[in-house]
Amino acid sequence: NPTKATCNATIVPLTKSSNTSTFVAGTPVGLPASPNSIIFDERGSNAYLGVDSSHFGQNGAMVFSGSAASQFNSAFGKVLAVSPDTSTVIFSDTFDTPNQVFICNSCSAASRTITSLLITGATAAAFSPDNLKAYIVATPPPPAPQVSTLYIYSKVDALQKISLNAAANDVVFAEEGGFSYLAGGAPSSITVRRTCDNAPDPSATLSTAAIPNMIRALPDATTLLALEPPNIDLVSITALSAAGCSGTITDSANTVNLGQGTFIPTQFIISGDGATAYILGETQPSGSARLPFIMVFNIGNHTTSAISLTGNAIPLSASLSPASNLLFVGADDGAVHIIDTSSGSDLQQVTFPAQTPLCFGPGNPPTAVPKTVVAISAVSQNGSNTTYSYVVNSGLPLAVGETIVIAGMQDGGNDGTYTILSLGPATFAVTNNSGVTTTSVQNGSGTVSITCNPDLVAVKP
């Protein structure tokens, strides 16, 4: 919803009937609130959606079962993590004052229990593979010093709080589970902690050019990737020593320049086989502009390429299929682009027509949400082109290429749904073979509805 107009968001499933058919948009499922994040549990049974704010108890997090979405107002904020056993979900509210983190146990059930923690600025979380612990990284917003705190939530112990020596942006557990890696925690470093007692392993700290933005563990249990634009760091675990709860880990890092200059990553996706990383981002400073392509990093060859979308559409959100053969990319042209990851080809662009909208206005049946409403006072016909004289009653100026719905004209031939071909001083022109020149003042109207972009895309595991 680029115009921020008031509307209701939907989830629209994309499915295909056979291996040879194309994907189609299914029946929209209306959401009780606009989400800011979505994460499926590892079994694909449920997806959890976060919201920016409680709005004084009116909004809450949602659980989506595949056919319906239910809301619970006792937790809100962005979804940070879902436990491997699917039972526990962590939400972080950094919008309301005070900030809070919500631990939602048995979260898909109506009997869920929610624990609220007064944690300011929580931006990342990860569960240990045994589901017993979660590490939560929190950094207070500026102008406070950008030094992070690590909180350890445990199913058996009280909440622990560890002050770090620098900002930390992300956290992940190594696949073997005995150690966690923090993107930061010390200046220009990747730091490591033992899972059993949460103590640091200074010998495993790795120096980096800057504090990484994101870090991911690969399924081979010996490699991690840390993203610190313009670089990506490949962390190799070469040895582990186990002696009660005093084990150590031996690792090293190899840095590769991605060749795209400095940017802010917004998504960092690893393929299921651990062979490829996909990166979405935006230019600096944060929020300036989205990168117009998806970066592709071949982990084995240490090479970088880029995928561009059909029509020069800008990627907003992406998600990989379980087999990693298809990348689903929501873009600013209102479509989900389906990418063949082996060739990088944009195979299909799934659009969302009026019967399957990504957002809708009030009413039954649901109504379109107006972006611009104009009053039409006169019409002039020239061949197959119809030119309307208008003034904007509300919303943004008209633009060439927009779809406008015209109604209420004295001659019905001037009503209809058209694409704006050109704009003149207080006029717009469309192709309309049935148009009629008017001789009296008209009282028609034209409405351009907003186009909601698919800015959250998630593939069911």
CATH superfamily annotation of the largest domain: YVTN repeat-like/Quinoprotein amine dehydrogenase
* Physical arrangement of strands within the biggest beta sheet: 37-36-40-34-35-39-38
Largest sheet: 7 strands, antiparallel
Query: What structural class do you assign from the helix and strand content?
Result: mainly beta
Distance between the ends: 27 Å
Q: Whole-number average pLDDT?
A: 93
**Strand tally:** 40
CATH topology of the largest domain: Methylamine Dehydrogenase, Chain H
SS strand fraction = over 45%
How many helices does DSSP assign?
Answer: 0
CATH architecture assignment of the largest domain: 7 Propeller
Helix share bin: under 10%
What is the total number of structural domains? 2
The shape is elongated
User: Low-confidence parts lasting 5 or more residues at pLDDT below 50?
Assistant: none
What is the CATH level 1 assignment of the largest domain? Answer: Mainly Beta
Based on CA atoms alone, the radius of gyration comes out at 25 Å
Key attributes of the depicted protein:
single chain, 461 residues, mainly beta, Methylamine Dehydrogenase, Chain H, Elongation Factor Tu (Ef-tu), domain 3, 2 domains, seven-stranded antiparallel β-sheet, four-stranded antiparallel β-sheet, 47% strand, elongated
